Amino acid sequence: MMWRASLLLLLLLLRHRAQGKPSPDAGPHGQGRVHQAAPLSDAPHDDAHGNFQYDHEAFLGREVAKEFDQLTPEESQARLGRIVDRMDRAGDGDGWVSLAELRAWIAHTQQRHIRDSVSAAWDTYDMDRDGRVGWEELRNATYGHYAPGEEFHDVEDAETYKKMMARDERRFRVADQDGDSMATREELTAFLHPEEFPHMRDIVIAETLEDLDRNKDGYVQVEEYIADLYSAEPGEEEPAWVQTERQQFRDFRDLNKDGHLDGSEVGHWVLPPAQDQPLVEANHLLHESDTDKDGRLSKAEILGNWNMFVGSQATNYGEDLTRHHDEL
Ligand SMILES: *[C@@H]1O[C@H](CO)[C@@H](O)[C@H](O)[C@H]1NC(C)=O
Ligand SMILES: [Ca+2]
């Protein structure tokens, strides 16, 4: 029942969002439609002023970065030293940290929130605790235990739920690559976080097209794109932000300028090609710490620039920044 309640909440949020004001950066589509890896950190990347909050969160993850801020400088450096060993051991173990090892570490750190969310879902879905999550288990946990044919007979919006369930099942079948109707952890991750998996791209595009393509011609016209965001009240003049969205559609969504979006243009929009953020950050940390310029980092080089990698009690700008943020 709890899950059904949260589903209702989601529906309400979706409806609410359709009437909300757009944020200037993401655009009103940004929140719901676009699947994108989260930034490594929300802090400004402000090294020039000795503010390494961004690097700390990229390197350690937000939660662990906070833990480090409570450590003495000595403890903090000691823990960093152990991380250096782990980074190297996870790679070729040659005693230096290479760009690839640094990148792999940051990528692993950043996957933590995905692993955590999948673990939480796993505990909810694997009701018989047999270490596998079947479609029926997931369905029962999400939509309630209905006998076949009686789905949603007791709720008002039955058709909406039926559609959502059918859609979930279809996505589950795509995520379930070996087709045994049982999701492994990897397969459940693909179901929940399709943006991480190239083989989920087509299903996300298909779902988006289904939502938007009202005249069922297989394309998204500008009116369909706008209808996802805004419906005019009779006699109301179209607000400026909607005009901006029309412009966005022409300038950035309709890449081949044929007046509508095909599947590949929808894909470019909802699953945009992403920069390799961990690689960019790894390059940055390496460049800033590689004192002998041999293209790899010794433990001494990393510890010599430890303030950039991790914080400690001596690092208090993070707290100041947070406080400042809260006041705003
Ligand atoms: C799901 O619920 C239905 C209806 O109560 C039940 O027949 C079925 O065995 C359940 N499936 C699982 C895997 O728990
Ligand atoms: Ca259409």
UniProtKB/TrEMBL annotation:
Entry-linked InterPro entries: EF-hand-dom_pair (IPR011992), EF_Hand_1_Ca_BS (IPR018247), EF_hand_dom (IPR002048)
Q: Which Gene3D superfamilies match?
A: EF-hand
Q: Which SMART domains match?
A: EFh (SM00054)
Keywords noted in UniProt:
Calcium, Chaperone, Endoplasmic reticulum, Glycoprotein, Metal-binding, Repeat, Signal
Q: Where is this region: Disordered?
A: 20-48
Q: What does this protein do?
A: Probable molecular chaperone assisting protein biosynthesis and transport in the endoplasmic reticulum. Required for the proper biosynthesis and transport of pulmonary surfactant-associated protein A/SP-A, pulmonary surfactant-associated protein D/SP-D and the lipid transporter ABCA3. By regulating both the proper expression and the degradation through the endoplasmic reticulum-associated protein degradation pathway of these proteins plays a crucial role in pulmonary surfactant homeostasis. Has an anti-fibrotic activity by negatively regulating the secretion of type I and type III collagens.
Q: What is this protein called?
A: Reticulocalbin-3
Instruction: Tell me what gene encodes this.
Output: RCN3
